[in-house]
């Protein structure tokens, strides 16, 4: 990354908290690296980004984010290779996407130089928080919230952009059971499903809680109007393998355009695996499962990379997906990780040195 021209205000921690962290036993999202970045939008301008010790911040109860949910976020990871070099995976994609999300939520776009200069400085300061080794990473969470005080229902005139980082090990390591949505919806036509808007998550917790009470882990959301087409998992995009072909839904205004999804589509092409990007009908998948042609379902997202689905429920019936030999999911996960940890050639130029 080349962002040396931007001025940042940096206040370093006096003593690192790193010795208090058991890196062999991390709970995702419970521990945060020493520093964080914040940058305020005031009077129509993004101010100088500040890097400060991670810690609580003060907001008035009337800050608009608490009332109208004007908030977007990103999720990305930094990886350390065996030589100690830190890499980011397709960070431009995350940068572009947070601004796409912001635009939809009437949040001003964040300058590219501010973003990359801050990220670079943060990773330099907190480089020891990125651990070597398979499955280890620093999960990076950029986000923006509306900070104007006042409960009038209109877009805010102040915002705060922040970046925090938490050390992560393999996120979900066990296969999951899912249910195909028949009642609730995650996103509607013309809505904000394509954006990483905070409210998309808030709205899926209740239906997901109901699914968990039935012993299922996650919901595969279907299109809101007919519930006939499978769209995504709500934190991950989703792939289906029928015979030797991969099938995934095209992105639209209800589906998040995942970096992991598009990388897997590219890797599939590189490896002569046929990928069909087309509407995935529930009927087709259920029939394929009955006929034994449905070989795999897997989710794809930054947090978990790839997660195997071991079975799904639809219309009160549970379908088991028996483990198979040489699953695509495992292949794509290790291919992606090999690139992310700089263990193989990176023909598409996806990895970027953090500093
Ligand atoms: C973040 C996210 C994904 C996965 O996107 P990646 O860029 O691969 O991490 C998928 N669906 C939703 C709704 C998401 O928020």
UniProtKB/TrEMBL annotation:
Could you say which EC number(s) this protein's record lists? 2.6.1.42
Q: Does the UniProt entry include the keyword rRNA-binding?
A: no
Do you know which InterPro entries this protein is assigned to? Aminotrans_IV (IPR001544), Aminotrans_IV_CS (IPR018300), Aminotransferase-like (IPR036038), B_amino_transII (IPR005786), BCAT-like_C (IPR043132), BCAT-like_N (IPR043131), BCAT_family (IPR033939)
Function field: Acts on leucine, isoleucine and valine.
- Positions the record marks as coiled coil are none
What's one GO MF term for it? Answer: L-leucine-2-oxoglutarate transaminase activity
Catalytic activity, reaction form: L-isoleucine + 2-oxoglutarate = (S)-3-methyl-2-oxopentanoate + L-glutamate; L-leucine + 2-oxoglutarate = 4-methyl-2-oxopentanoate + L-glutamate; L-valine + 2-oxoglutarate = 3-methyl-2-oxobutanoate + L-glutamate
Magnesium as a keyword?
no
Q: Which family, according to the similarity comment? A: Belongs to the class-IV pyridoxal-phosphate-dependent aminotransferase family.
Residues bearing N6-(pyridoxal phosphate)lysine are 196
**UniProt xrefs under CDD domains:** BCAT_beta_family
Tell me the cofactors it needs: pyridoxal 5'-phosphate
Supply the source organism for this entry: Psychroflexus aurantiacus
* Superkingdom as given in the UniProt entry: Bacteria
Q: In which pathway does it act?
A: Amino-acid biosynthesis; L-valine biosynthesis; L-valine from pyruvate: step 4/4; Amino-acid biosynthesis; L-isoleucine biosynthesis; L-isoleucine from 2-oxobutanoate: step 4/4; Amino-acid biosynthesis; L-leucine biosynthesis; L-leucine from 3-methyl-2-oxobutanoate: step 4/4
- Keywords carried by this UniProt record: Amino-acid biosynthesis, Aminotransferase, Branched-chain amino acid biosynthesis, Pyridoxal phosphate, Transferase
Annotated GO biological processes are: isoleucine biosynthetic process; L-leucine biosynthetic process; L-valine biosynthetic process
Family annotation (Gene3D superfamilies): 3.30.470.10, D-amino Acid Aminotransferase, subunit A, domain 2
- Specify the protein name: Branched-chain-amino-acid aminotransferase
